[in-house]
Amino acid sequence: MNDIRKIAFIGAGNMTQSIVGGMCKSGYPADHIFVSNPSPEKLEKMKSSLGVNTSQDNIEVIKQADVIVLSVKPQLMEQVCADIKSKVDNLADKLIITIAAGIRMPKYRTYLGDDITIIRVMPNTPSLVGQGMSGLVTDSADDKDKAYVTEVFDGVGDTLWVADEDQLDILGAVAGSGPAYFFEFMDSLAKGAMELGFDPEKARAMVQQTCLGAAQMAKESDLTLEDLRKQVTSKGGSTAKGVEVYQQRDLHTISADAVKAAVKRNQEMADLF
């Protein structure tokens, strides 16, 4: 990584641990990473395993950093930002990244000032195993800042810049919520196998490896997802009969309705903060 900045993470939850772990694995110098958290247990774990700087004082780490990553629960964000604004007088000189769901960029300006540079990032839970899909959006960062944040989050998976926060809501409904949809589907397949005599362990092993293999094929292939499905579906064969059931139950409409419901909830959440 060419652009090395001092970066402070406010909050040491699972996502922070994942992102910082990915950064260190990618060669980011641990002495340029600062993490704050109210309780010491998570900090001690990160300090001992990764060698990063830690503190229970948000302001202490922010004052040493060029970049601030806000990684606290949305319901705590206003209080955390109020404390930061009252004690840090050069916020306009720092790049601010937020990974909190639901809070839009104009709201951060009411919290931290009109002159801040901010990037919203929406990572998903597979980031915890280095296979994340992070959506990013900004209304103020320049290309250099965007390249920096892209490289940071590429350490835990793939990144995708979107045009505006409405698109980020859609990405959240697909990539953010998507792991839950896939787990639901995987669970249903495993239970189908169990109903026919498989024990739970073998059913799970069969389903999770099949899911992983299909995803890898999709990632490496230039074919459309529909064409990949057709490749597996011999006319008149057993797969065709299984696919017919999904088509008869209109899986497309079910998935589209699920995404729309999640988008609607994302928009409702934005009004709560």
What does this structure look like?
NADP(+) binds at residues 10-15. This is Pyrroline-5-carboxylate reductase. This protein is an alpha/beta fold and 273 residues long. It has 2 domains: 7-172, Rossmann fold; 178-272, ProC C-terminal domain-like (ProC C-terminal domain-like fold), CATH 1.10.3730. Helices cover 57% and strands 14% of the residues. The chain is built from 12 helices and 8 strands. Helix 7 crosses helix 12 and helix 8 crosses helix 9. The longest helix is centred in the C-terminal third of the chain and has 22 residues, at 251-272. The model has no long low-confidence stretch (mean pLDDT 96).
Please describe the structure with a list of short key phrases separated by commas or semicolons:
ProC C-terminal domain-like fold; eight-stranded mixed beta sheet; 14% strand; proline biosynthesis; elongated; 2 domains; Pyrroline-5-carboxylate reductase; EC 1.5.1.2; 273 residues; Rossmann fold; alpha/beta; 12 helices
CATH class of the largest domain: Alpha Beta
**Strand pairing plus helix content: what structural class?**
alpha/beta
**Might you state the CATH topology name of the largest domain?**
Rossmann fold
The CATH superfamily of the largest domain turns out to be NAD(P)-binding Rossmann-like Domain
What's the N-to-C terminus distance? Answer: 35 Å
The percent range for helix content is: 55-70%
Low-confidence stretches: none
Helical element count? 12
Overall form? elongated
Counted beta strands: 8
Q: Write down the Rg.
A: 21 Å
CATH architecture of the largest domain: 3-Layer(aba) Sandwich
Number of domains: 2
The share of residues in extended strands comes to: 5-15%
Reading the helices and strands in chain order gives EHEHEHEHEHEEHEHHHHHH
What's the average pLDDT? 96
Output the strand order for the largest sheet: 3-2-1-4-5-6-7-8
Largest sheet: 8 strands, mixed
Catalytic activity: L-proline + NAD(+) = (S)-1-pyrroline-5-carboxylate + NADH + 2 H(+); L-proline + NADP(+) = (S)-1-pyrroline-5-carboxylate + NADPH + 2 H(+)
Enzyme class: oxidoreductase
Pfam family, one: P5CR_dimer
Domain Pyrroline-5-carboxylate reductase catalytic N-terminal: 6-102
